[in-house]
Write a structure and sequence with these properties.
By secondary structure, this protein is α+β, with helices and mostly antiparallel strands. It has 5 helices and 3 strands.
Length: 91
């Protein structure tokens, strides 16, 4: 992982609502957008924006099933981010 990508992930997860949404998704095996909206006191548009940011960074993926869109985390991406952070201590 390059510094720029790590910086973007840090910035994205530094936003408290987005971090909470990511945590909720990462703890589960797949969650649909309505469940995310029900847990957070945010408008559906705001939740959608946070989900897009997380998707664009590769931290989560989505799949459409019927009328619902399900989200799940990409553990490999988060692991790469953690490895990058750990490498900072070795420099």
């Amino acid at each position: 992982m390059k510094e720029k990508e790590a910086t973007l992930i840090a910035k994205a997860l530094g936003e408290p609502s987005r971090f909470s949404i990511y945590s909720q998704i990462a703890e589960g095996d797949g969650i649909y957008c309505g469940e995310v909206c029900n847990k957070h006191a945010l408008s559906p548009g705001t939740v959608s924006h946070h989900l897009k940011v997380l998707t664009d960074l590769g931290l989560i993926t989505s799949r459409k099933e019927g009328l619902n869109v399900y989200y799940r985390s990409v553990p490999e991406k988060f692991s790469a981010y953690l490895a990058y952070l750990q490498s900072l201590n070795r420099k």
